[in-house]
Design goal:
Structural class: alpha+beta
Order of helices and strands: HEHHEEHEE
Shape: globular
Mean pLDDT: 82
Number of strands: 5
Helix content: 25-40%
Number of helices: 4
Length: 173
């Protein structure tokens, strides 16, 4: 190394061009649904509307699996979270994953060990597993409740292809 330039030798070994991989943008939507007899229907309708915004093909098998997971988790809020007056249901897409989150005001975390879950959470775990995903639960931030998270790896066939800018057509059409 020469005096005054301590990093010169390091630079000589570095490539002239460095490619930085930046993850795709994250798209997130959260819907607050009043806990009551119409909560599951309202949540399914809201999530179906958001699928197009996050790039999921609305009529795909994958979308159906996500809607079933949302239905089961909101049903669990109705059954097991008596302190909750609303459920915050989110869908986040980014970095090759779709994450469904359902937050309620009940601080008791569900037991997610195999054999300890109820039939609804077992179904949720099975559906997530079919898409290389998982289920977890954690205390909520900012209040005494909890958040149940279900992660799915995004299958490429379940995602909308971007349209060519300004034409409304798919690339190559």
């Amino acid at each position: 190394m020469t005096a005054g330039h301590p990093f010169r030798s390091w630079r000589r070994r570095r490539p002239a061009v460095v490619i930085e991989l930046v993850p795709s943008p994250v798209r997130r939507h959260i819907v607050s649904v009043p806990v009551g007899p119409d909560a599951v229907r309202q949540t399914r309708e809201a999530m179906t509307q958001r699928f197009g915004e996050v790039g999921v093909v609305p009529d795909s098998v994958f979308a159906d699996a996500v809607l079933l997971v949302v239905s089961e988790l909101v049903t669990n809020v109705l059954r097991h979270a008596p302190r909750s007056i609303v459920a915050d249901v989110g869908v986040t897409v980014g970095s090759g994953q779709l994450v469904v989150s359902v937050a309620d005001a009940e601080p008791c975390l569900p037991d997610l060990e195999p054999g300890a879950m109820g039939a609804g959470l077992e179904l949720v775990a099975e559906l997530a597993g079919e898409y290389d995903g998982d289920i977890s639960a954690e205390p909520a931030v900012g209040h005494d409740g909890k958040v149940v998270l279900v992660r799915f790896s995004l299958p490429s066939w379940a995602m909308d292809r971007p349209r060519s800018r300004g034409t409304g057509r798919w690339p190559g059409e």
